[in-house]
Design a protein that fits this description.
membrane, transmembrane helix, cell inner membrane, sodium ion binding, about 500 residues, mainly alpha, globular, two-stranded antiparallel ribbon, Sodium/glucose cotransporter
């Protein structure tokens, strides 16, 4: 590895650790301070933190890889995600910010569910926490896998070493600074990702002789690469079910704990529109850059004799070949930024759930604020260790790991979050039914040995579609046959009044 690249990466690691220390010094010592930043995030930090924690290593590796293989038909995922993210800011952000505070100052999503439905049995909180632990196990491992691939393909170091270095740095600043450090590092990492995803495709197109020449190269490879309705990898026309499955990625936003927790932490409802404008601008430009990297990266590779690469490493290859080592190091730091921003958010959400929803509820009901913060830090280390263990299975692609976890959260929590924020008559029983139905449908859809048209259920239709639909139906049906408690309806009325006042 060139000295310039090492210098760039070294500086990046130092900056991340420095921000972690700053977050530690600035954050208060309460549980709310460690896990939610005291609810005082500004709109810019909220927007880029949500975006960076959302667009993990899959945006710089998985999405360009999909574009590299399938052509612009892979853009359906990007379209669905963009629509979903926008609706998340409109429908969820302002309401969740107000309701979590009204609902006994809830600081985790399971905590919110319990307080929203006055669940004295606490089973709603426990089941939600189990869902978080299960699906974040898959999600976090995808980020660690991306780190291992990066170190192996870029630095000629072992895959296993990459796992430990990636997870180790993330654990360090998450452990020290908590939510505030995670959000601040996400902001910096989002800026790095944005610059890189603009720079790389622009330079590749210039190397190919301009946009017209680059498009001609792609057309010579396979005209289907420019067909939005054709999967160039298989040469088949996308079916309605196929397009729906790709667009359905957007449904997942409503139930992603590591993203919507930013809405709980923003300083006020009035700051949400500013965060939305910043976040959506960042997202559209970044995703466009990722797609162009994959498409024009293919054109560049075909002109290099005897070069074959893993499609998911096209961004890494281009950063090494086309740029000075110092800049190349910065671009590799962008991948680390994407990976680490998501891992840190997932570690914090999972550790928050383990601390507030298991440790405090079942083991130490009278634990002090300091003890709970320590428990949260221990949980960060434990979750990271499990993620590293799972990442030793290097055969799974980053996009497949992310897709399974994304569907699980989207189906289990998405309808539940939406109905809980908009329906006065939703009941506790309906919340149970919706969450269990969504999670179970996704798991069965992935693992049942059933085929349709020669494809597994998951290949035929993305599992979030049946999961989201059946979860929504379960919520509506069960709410029709059960009655919400009067205290819950009264709280909902207070929430609507508070929302109106804060807007």
């Amino acid at each position: 590895m060139a000295v310039g690249t090492m210098v760039s990466l070294g500086l990046y690691f130092l900056v991340m650790l420095g921000i972690g220390w700053y977050g530690y010094k600035e954050a208060d010592t309460s549980v709310e301070g460690y896990m939610l930043g005291g609810r005082k995030l500004g709109p810019a930090v909220t927007a880029l933190s949500a975006g960076a924690s959302d667009m993990s290593g899959w945006m710089l590796m998985g999405l360009p890889g999909a574009m590299y293989v399938a052509g612009i038909s892979a853009a359906w995922i990007a379209i669905g995600l963009t629509i979903g993210a926008f609706l998340n800011y409109i429908l969820v952000a302002p309401r969740l910010r107000v309701y979590t505070e009204i609902a006994n100052n809830a600081i985790t999503l399971p905590d919110y569910f319990e307080n929203r439905f006055a669940d004295n049995s606490r089973m709603l909180r426990v089941i939600a926490s189990v869902v978080i632990v299960i699906f974040f196990t898959l999600y976090t491992s995808s980020g660690v896998v991306a780190g291992g691939k990066l170190f192996e393909s870029s630095f000629n170091l072992s895959y296993e070493l990459g796992l430990y270095v990636t997870a180790g740095v993330v654990v360090a600043y998450t452990l020290i600074g908590g939510f505030m450090a995670v959000s601040m590092t996400d902001f910096v990492q989002g800026c790095i990702m944005f610059i890189s995803l603009i720079l790389v495709p622009v330079v590749v197109v210039m190397e190919l002789g301009g946009l017209s020449q680059a498009n001609q190269v792609i057309n010579n490879i396979d005209p289907a690469m420019f067909d939005l309705f054709t999967d160039a990898a298989s040469g088949t026309t996308l079916s309605f079910i196929g397009i729906l499955s790709l667009l359905a990625w957007g449904f997942g936003y409503f139930g992603q704990p590591h993203i919507i927790v930013r809405f709980m932490a923003i300083r006020s409802v009035k700051a949400v529109p500013v965060a939305r404008r910043i976040g959506m601008s960042w997202m559209i430009l970044s995703i466009t850059g990722a797609l162009m990297t994959g498409l024009y990266g293919l054109a560049y590779i075909t002109q290099q004799p005897d070069v074959t690469i893993d499609p998911e490493t096209i961004f890494i290859y281009l950063s090494q070949i086309l740029f000075h080592p110092l800049i190349g190091g910065f671009l590799l730091a962008a991948i680390l930024a994407a990976i680490m921003s998501t891992i840190s958010s997932q570690l914090l959400v999972t550790s928050s759930s383990l601390t507030s929803d298991f440790y405090q509820i079942f083991l130490r009901k009278d634990a002090s604020e300091g003890e709970l913060v320590i428990a949260g830090r221990v949980s960060v280390v434990l979750v990271a260790a499990v993620a590293i263990g799972l990442a030793y299975d290097r055969d799974s692609t980053i996009l497949s790991l992310v897709s399974n976890a994304w569907a699980g959260f989207g189906a289990a929590f998405g309808p539940l979050v939406l109905f809980s924020l908009f329906s006065r008559n939703m009941t506790r029983a309906a919340a149970f039914a919706g969450m269990i139905t969504g999670a179970a449908t996704v798991l069965l859809w992935i693992y049942l040995p059933v085929q349709i048209e020669g494809q597994s259920l998951s290949q035929w239709m993305y599992e979030i579609v049946p999961g989201f639909v059946l979860s929504s139906i379960a919520i509506v049906v069960v709410s029709k046959f059960t009655q919400p408690r009067e205290s819950v309806q009264a709280t909902f009325a207070r929430f609507e009044d508070a929302l109106h006042q804060q807007r």
